[in-house]
Each structure stands twice: as structure tokens, then as C-alpha cells.
Amino acid sequence: MPRIRQSISRLIAAAILLVAGLAVAPAAAYGAAQSTEPATQTSAFWSCSVPSGYTYTAVRRELNVCNPGGFANSYYVVAPSDRLWACTVPSGYTYSSVRRQLNVCNPSGFANSYYLRVPQAGIWACTVPPGFSYSSVRRQLNVCNPSGFANSYLLVG
């Protein structure tokens, strides 16, 4: 009976994530892919924690998976890469867009996702990473701030 209950809980959680992912229509970002599905990479895996040097693209709350006596979060862990929507901005990366989504980076509410970029001269970024400067600034609505205006910086290095 516990296995049946666990299987049903996982199916319900998967269905909620699927419906939530399809229900969210993110704002378009400059050159950004619009998929809300977890990245498919050979190094991607579900984990109870996010190892150093990695990021994650989705999180789900599951019963008896990362906590044998109840619910806990599991993270879809990926190696960071250029042009990836991720839930965190790892060291050595910047981001060029941010969007607020329901049940993607937070299993029970809204949270931001960041469009990762490898810092290089000539890209517009929401932050100025160490070792870079910028030659131009533009204030945009819903690009670097999902609910208002924020600056983007044209990086020079």
C-alpha cells in the first residue's frame, strides 16, 4: 500500500508540474528559447541537492524521495552553459533576461529563472561581471526585472 501511495503522489506531482509548465506563457526575451521544460543534457539529473559548479532548471517537491519521512525538494541539476534558462546564476556567468514562473524554480509558487550568458564583449547583460565594463546602458521593461524596469549593459572587456 505505501508503494501505491508513493506512486500516486509522484504522478500527481508530475501532473501538477506539467500543467503548471504549460500554463505559464513567459514574456519573450531577446534571442531566448521559450521552453519551460528542463534542459536535456547528458549531464542532467534529478538530485536532492545542487553540487558546487552546477545549477538547476526545475525543482519539484516529492514525498519520501529526499526525505524518508515526508516531502522534500528535488532539483533538476545541469552543468551551466550559454543560452540556458536556469534557476540560479552560477559564478562565471551573467544573464540577459529574467522571467517569473509558477512552479518551475519554486515547487509551491513563483520564482525567477535567468537566461544565462557567458560574459563576452558585445552582449547585453543584466549585470556587469568582474573583469568587464560597459559602453552603453538601456532601461527596459520586463527584461532584467520580471515586473518592472531595470538596466541592461552592453559589455566591453
Provide structural commentary:
The protein is mostly beta strands and 157 residues long. The chain is built from one helix and nine strands; from the N terminus they run H-E-E-E-E-E-E-E-E-E. It has one domain. The strands form three sheets. It has a three-stranded antiparallel β-sheet with strand order 1-3-2. The protein has a three-stranded antiparallel β-sheet with strand order 4-6-5, with no helix packed on it. Strands 7-9-8 form a three-stranded antiparallel β-sheet, with no helix packed on it. The longest helix is centred in the N-terminal third of the chain and has 22 residues.
Secondary structure layout:
Layout: H1 2-23, E1 45-47, E2 55-63, E3 71-78, E4 85-86, E5 94-102, E6 110-117, E7 124-125, E8 133-141, E9 149-156
Antiparallel strand pairs: 1-3, 2-3, 4-6, 5-6, 7-9, 8-9
List keywords for this structure.
14% helix, 9 strands, three-stranded antiparallel beta sheet, 1 helix, single chain, 157 residues, mainly beta
